[in-house]
Amino acid sequence: MKAKRARAARAAHAGGTRKQSSGRKRSARGAKPERDLAAEKRRARTILARLEREYPDARCSLDYDSPLQLVVATILSAQCTDARVNKVTPALFERYPTALALAEAEIGEVEEQIRSTGFFRNKARSIVACAQELVARHGGEVPADLESLVQLAGIGRKTANVVLGNAFGIPGVVVDTHVTRISRLLSLTVQKEPNKIELDLMEVVPRSKWTQLAHLFIEHGRRVCVARRPRCDACVLNDLCPSSEV
Ligand code: SF4
User: Fold this and answer.
1) Residue 35's beta-bridge partner residues?
2) Which residue among 63, 126, 187, 196 has its CA within the 20 to 30 Å range from the CA of 117?
3) Going by CA atoms, what residue is nearest to atom 8 of ligand 1?
């Protein structure tokens, strides 16, 4: 029985099925789960409060001094560690200090500077194309609204929310792999698509905590709720988590 429970928990951590949340109950056989929204909001607030106590210094781990630098760093962070990006960006930002400088850059030169971040050809093309669009449409400045940001080359909702939340102080829910995995394990969502997960989280998490949520979940995912080998015994959320193995 214990082995069966452990198998089910491992499947959940790998992104598979998991136990139903205490905030969701089935109304009738085969019907969609009913959400007790008030209970889910209370649980979400408790989860965030505990993670804030656990990780008081959680913040964006990319280094940047301007919205443009954060746009570039976030594009570079795809399939790459933030630490590796932070090694590459100082020289890149010094060589290309403005959107105009990046817009006029030789793609090959940019590729060489960012090679160690992986997928460097695609990333160089996105960065230069994005800079050209910033110059053509926004006077070289990064716009501070989601609709304009997601129109730019190389920028999806995730990058747009990173930039809005961290460079402009406009709350946004960033859904990356840690946020996806941990939100599902905690039954804050049953969705798999980032856009739907974002909407579920926006519904239960107070707006003032939207940006911090990603930093906290990323920290928790790196330290405790590690993919495929979560340390549930050491987790401050284990009494609130339907996927807990303890
Ligand atoms: S109890 Fe904690 S570590 Fe275990 S699955 Fe839940 S959130 Fe992750």
Assistant:
1) 24
2) 196
3) 225
Residue ranges of E strands in the chain = 24-26, 33-35
Q: Which CATH architecture has domain 35-59+171-246?
A: Orthogonal Bundle (1.10)
Q: Is 65 a catalytic residue?
A: no
Q: What distance in angstroms lies between residue 233's CA and the mean position of ligand 1's atoms?
A: 8
Lookup result for tokens 């993919």 = 227
With 0-12 / 13-18 / 19 or more C-beta atoms within 10 angstroms meaning exposed / middle / buried, residue 193 is exposed
Which of 176, 200, 233, 239 is catalytic? The answer is 176
Q: In angstroms, rounded to a whole number, what is the distance separating the alpha carbons of residues 85 and 87?
A: 5
- Label residue 13 by pLDDT band (50, 70, 90): very low
Could you read off the pLDDT of 73-112 as tens digits, one per residue? 999 999 999 999 999 999 999 999 999 999 999 999 999 9
The residue that leads in pLDDT, 49 or 28, is 49
Dihedral Cα 214, 166, 159, 152, nearest 10 deg: 160
Which CATH number among 1.20.120.450, 1.10.760.10, 1.10.340.30, 1.10.287.3510 corresponds to the domain 67-141?
1.10.340.30
Q: pTM value?
A: 0.84
